[in-house]
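Subgroup meeting minutes
Present: P.N., E.W., G.H.
Scribe: E.W.

1. P.N. recapped why we're keeping a running log of single-chain structure predictions: easier to compare across weeks, and new members can see raw inputs and outputs side by side.
2. G.H. added today's entry (98 aa).
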Amino acid sequence: MLVCAGCKITQDTGYQAGADDASEDVRQRRRLDLALTEAAKAARTLARMVQSRGRQVFGTPDAVATLRRRLKSVDEILLTFGPIRTDVLVVDDEDGEE
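Output recorded in log:
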């Protein structure tokens, strides 16, 4: 069983997903994508507002730190539980001479 440090999620690596689970996977990925899209839009809008209204548009330093921790926890979940890239990079050490 894998456990994400700092989050309350565990993953049993022996679990086999069924058809209902697959559709739930799709729904949850879509929710995550939409939430991140909306968060990015809000952050960009606030960043534009900084020019006219100052950095306080983001709230207090503590509020910003909390948002950053929450974003980091999502990143940690994706790193811990997301698929592992298995691409192999082949580096050709030859300089073209035979």
